[in-house]
């Protein structure tokens, strides 16, 4: 007798495939990654074009980044949000989606959240990349927590404009709404930034009147509430059943706006690193602020030839000092103003002095022409100037060129004066070192006193 055969249960029919995540669909086939790439490209091209004007200066980098975020990224993400919001209108699927199980809030978040996340992440990555580009050429100083929080407030601005654009795209069915919204954002944000009234303080970019000032820690949260409140109100008004809920973010934004208008420039304070000096051991000393302390060595290298020619000269000013807020270099104090480093892109590019000869020439200008009522020292100034800082910016550096230009533009009389000045330059160079040092000391001392009559003859 055979044993009964065990029957196996029939396999269950295959179930339906799980629906893909909305985030995954948006990131693979939606607008979000393209919008993020556009944000990164805009930051890279805009900042990279003018790299010589910010690379190395933390405050300048911070300011340009924030202006770029507001004036360029703001309209860009608003247009992207509007295009994303109008997707159902373009596809003709609005009526079908309104019959779906998911409510308007879930559908809005599923379409908006990936886009907002991508543009915010791209903005933060681009910001970090720009700071990494300025770090190798740092002039000194650095950023504070307040500066970093302001970039976080800019992220709120980027996300908020994306949300406002999305709501506009859902409400307005016209295909050109995205372009019109971008233009409107650019005009509004640009106009608010240049309005010289208390209402101009409502511009999302809050920058001080003086470069190198530090923001208060409370400034960024207040700006975030001000720029994020209207966006949150727009989303609530579009998705919530109780429209009264929109009053909460609007009231918060109004309070934040009041704080910004009332406080004004009190939100910024002077950076003490912009006042403290760091000096080298040369003669005369070179002193720069702590914000530019990494330029101490390049400035010393640029003025090394001038220092050699001034070696042993008696009665020199003690130091070349960088100009700084709250302090004015005056004659008779033992200080001479150091040539300016800023704005970047001229005398300083990427942490280096671009032209040592021109920089030395400007230092001699401060040495021989302080704040005198009549700074002109006559033809003999050209002689001393050319000796201390030989450069082709002064005609006497190239005798043949100097005589030819004098004859061409001023005639025989000026040509004769130029030949006399060239002979005086030769006599100055031929003097014994001690005698030349004494003569230069007397000449520079008279120039510092603005006493033209006391300048010695040559």
UniProtKB/TrEMBL annotation:
It comes from the Bacteria. Keywords: Membrane, Transmembrane, Transmembrane helix. The chain crosses the membrane at residues 31-52, 64-83, 108-133, 145-169, 176-195, 215-238. Residues 1-25 are annotated as: Disordered. Residues 10-19 have a biased composition (Pro residues). This is Uncharacterized protein.
């Amino acid at each position: 007798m055979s044993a009964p055969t065990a029957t196996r249960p029939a396999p269950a029919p295959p179930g339906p495939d799980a629906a893909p995540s909305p985030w995954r669909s948006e990131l693979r086939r939606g607008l979000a990654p393209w919008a993020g790439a556009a944000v990164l490209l805009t930051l890279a091209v805009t900042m990279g074009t003018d790299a010589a004007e910010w690379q190395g200066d933390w405050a300048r980098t911070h300011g340009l980044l924030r202006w770029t975020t507001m004036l360029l990224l703001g309209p860009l993400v608003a247009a992207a949000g509007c295009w994303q919001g109008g997707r159902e209108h373009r596809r003709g699927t609005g009526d079908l989606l309104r019959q779906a199980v998911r409510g308007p809030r879930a559908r809005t978040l599923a379409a908006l959240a990936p886009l907002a996340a991508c543009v915010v992440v791209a903005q933060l990555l681009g910001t970090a990349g720009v700071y990494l580009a300025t770090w190798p050429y740092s002039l000194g100083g650095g950023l504070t927590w307040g500066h970093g929080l302001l970039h976080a407030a800019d992220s709120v601005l980027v996300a908020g404009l994306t949300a406002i654009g999305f709501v506009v795209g859902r409400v307005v069915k016209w295909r050109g709404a995205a372009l019109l919204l971008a233009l409107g954002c650019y005009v509004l944000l640009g106009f608010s930034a240049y309005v010289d009234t208390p209402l101009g303080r409502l511009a999302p970019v809050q920058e001080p009147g003086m470069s190198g000032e530090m923001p208060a820690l409370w400034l960024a949260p207040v700006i975030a509430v001000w720029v994020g409140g209207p966006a949150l109100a727009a989303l609530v008004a579009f998705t919530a059943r109780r429209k009264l809920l929109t009053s909460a973010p609007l009231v918060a934004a109004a309070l934040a706006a009041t704080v910004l208008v009332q406080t004004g420039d009190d939100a910024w304070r002077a950076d003490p690193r912009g006042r403290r000096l760091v000096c080298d051991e040369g003669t005369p000393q070179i002193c720069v602020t702590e914000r530019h302390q990494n330029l101490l060595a390049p400035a010393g290298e640029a003025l090394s030839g001038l220092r050699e020619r001034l070696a042993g000269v008696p009665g020199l000013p003690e130091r070349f000092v960088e100009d700084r807020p709250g302090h004015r270099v005056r004659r008779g104090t033992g200080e001479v103003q150091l040539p300016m480093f800023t704005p970047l892109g001229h005398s300083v590019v990427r942490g280096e002095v671009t032209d040592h000869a021109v920089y030395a020439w400007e230092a001699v200008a401060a040495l021989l022409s302080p704040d005198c009522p009549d700074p002109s020292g006559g033809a003999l100034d050209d002689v001393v100037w050319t000796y201390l800082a030989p450069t082709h910016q002064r005609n006497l550096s190239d005798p043949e060129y100097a005589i030819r230009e004098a004859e061409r533009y001023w005639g025989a009389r000026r040509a004769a004066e130029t030949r006399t000045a060239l002979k005086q330059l030769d006599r100055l160079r031929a003097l014994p070192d001690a005698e030349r040092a004494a003569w230069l000391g007397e000449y520079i001392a008279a120039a510092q006193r603005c006493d033209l009559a006391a300048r010695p003859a040559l």
